[in-house]
Structure formats: C-alpha cells, structure tokens
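Deliverable D5.2: sample structural annotation.
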Amino acid sequence: MNGTAPGLVQRLQDSPQRLSDSIRASALWLAVLDGPLDAREFHEVGLALTHDPEGVPLHDIAEAFAADAMPKDLPKLFRFLRGQRSPKRTVSLVDLYIRVAAADGRISQIERHALIFLSDLLAAPASLLPERFEALLGLEFEAPADLSDPAFFEAAEAVARARAARQKAREADAGKAAQADAERRDALLVLGLKTDATPIAIKAAWRKLSRQHHPDRQLQADEAAKAAAAERFDAVQKAWKRLQDDDDA
C-alpha cells in the first residue's frame, strides 16, 4: 500500500470477521446510495448479526462510505459475498436489506435497484424479494425506473442534494440552539442564578444587582470602584435583555 492506510474493502478482506463485516458493509452501502446515512439506517444495520463481533468497527465502515460510496475496489466486496452465498442465510439477508432501505421512511428508486442487485447477488429466487418486501412492509414492491433513462439519474441526484440540504439545515438549527443555550447559561451566571431559575427569580436578581451597581450609588466611591460598578451594571443589563429576549421569543 506504499505506506498508506488500507482502504475499506481491503480492511474487510483482512478482518477476522470478514463475512459478517462484509454483510454489514453491503447494508451500509445500500443505505448511502441515495444520500447521507440516516441514523435510523445505521441503527438498523447495527441490529444485524449481533452474535458476531465487529472486526472493522461499524462507524469506520459508515465513515468510509460517507467519503466515497463507490470505491474502485467495491466489486471485490460483492464477489466475496457472491462466493459466500447460502440458501440458509438468503432470506435473512434480503430481510436485512429491505429493513435498512425502509428505515428512513422512504425507499428511493436507486435503493430499489440496489435491492434487486443484492437479491440477485444472493441467487435468491425472483419471487423472494417481492414476497419479503410485502411481508415486512405491507407494501407491494414496485419495479424501479429504467436506468437507461438520463432523467432517472438527474432525479436521483436532485433527491440526494435535497437530503443533504435538509441535513445541513438540521445541523445548522442544532448549532443555533446550542449557542442560544450557552448564551442563556452565561446570562444567568451574570445574575448569579442556576439554569433552572424561574422568571420571578430572574427579575428579582436583576433588580437587586441593578440597584447595587447603579452609578447613582457609587458617588462616594473612587474612580476604580466606579468603573468596576459601571462595568458590572452594564453586564447585568445585557444579561437581563438576553433573558427577556428568550421570554419574548
């Protein structure tokens, strides 16, 4: 590897849990095909093969596919799985793939193609995927769009972009909420209060500190004390305004 870290597929090939890790990887590959990995999809994969320990950590596999959903050596993974196929595990694997595809509440066209591909890889009977799909989801398996139509890929890319934009917006909202919480904690700290302070306690603390540090009460103080009191008074007013903004929101 010329001193570079081995890629995901190589790590899977070298894993002491090669089969179970490869099965988990194929399920995560399915999950990322139509956009960023959803936490529900990741959780569903995590529920699989719980009796087999992880050789390659599941988070590492997810991060690798998030960076590149189609690594150049991916066919090695599928060739290995094809060589390990077994009628005894075919139904359980088809069920796993269906549950992962449906975990985020939607099954995209590209996920339907991937379900057919993985079912064929396992040499499953043609009727198995539709039967298990309906049994697990209570829905009829609809044939996916024609992959030879360029409009399909345009629509798939648009869906992926929209999902990525929604994820980015959720992360931005979470960041704003965290910042607001931090600002509120800081404002309460200025007033000498804890995070569970009631509106009445907040107002009482503000009045007390405002009277204590008001410039009119510092007339006999030296210049240093006046400056410190003025700074403290200003901080109290800003904290009060910040907390009032919360109440008005």
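Annotation notes: DSSP finds eleven helices and no strands in the chain. The two ends are 57 Å apart (CA to CA).
The annotation will be released with the project's public dataset once the embargo ends.
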